[in-house]
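2024-03-11 09:14:02 INFO receiving multi-entity request
2024-03-11 09:14:02 INFO entity count = two
2024-03-11 09:14:03 INFO echoing inputs for audit
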Amino acid sequence: QKEVEQNSGPLSVPEGAIASLNCTYSDRGSQSFFWYRQYSGKSPELIMFIYSNGDKEDGRFTAQLNKASQYVSLLIRDSQPSDSATYLCAVPNQGGKLIFGQGTELSVKP
Amino acid sequence: SQTIHQWPATLVQPVGSPLSLECTVEGTSNPNLYWYRQAAGRGLQLLFYSVGIGQISSEVPQNLSASRPQDRQFILSSKKLLLSDSGFYLCAWSLWGQDEQYFGPGTRLTVT
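2024-03-11 09:21:47 INFO inference complete, emitting structure
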């Protein structure tokens, strides 16, 4: 059974700092990785995906993948209070399904 | 572009009552469809998924059922709700052959 692990947090960072969210996965054969953001009381929103080793940047967000160490990270630069949310990491499973981590709660303090 | 709708947005039901939640997707054909439940402060639990009309796979045995009467319509049902059925119910879709899923706005169910 594939597993995806995340620290539940909460992770608290000051406004303007870099927030670093980490996710480890058990299946070495995993090829793609997804980051979802979920505001309190709302549904998850896909914000990043990464398929290749290395970094992928999209605005203030950078996804980092290290397949050898089986972890994927999400960096948020210049963190804003509006980034306060729970961030979910997901890995594909067979049959078109995703396995989600428990999520890391991020709090950005003004 | 594709959009996904869920209704109702919130629902309060007594124990033992029936349930019907509906999800529809617009702007795409033959999507994969998923029902998840998220209990308060918990992660996402996949309940059902469907790759086509009438094709339903159940992930967790419980008193819930799902149906897909039309290509872009997915329904979650129960004959008799339990207190433990309370939670945030999310419908999601994906394109065939692609892994990324997109979620609807969700239905918050409280069983009293």
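2024-03-11 09:21:48 INFO post-check: The mean pLDDT of chain B is 95.
2024-03-11 09:21:48 INFO post-check: The first strand of chain B starts at residue 3 and ends at 7.
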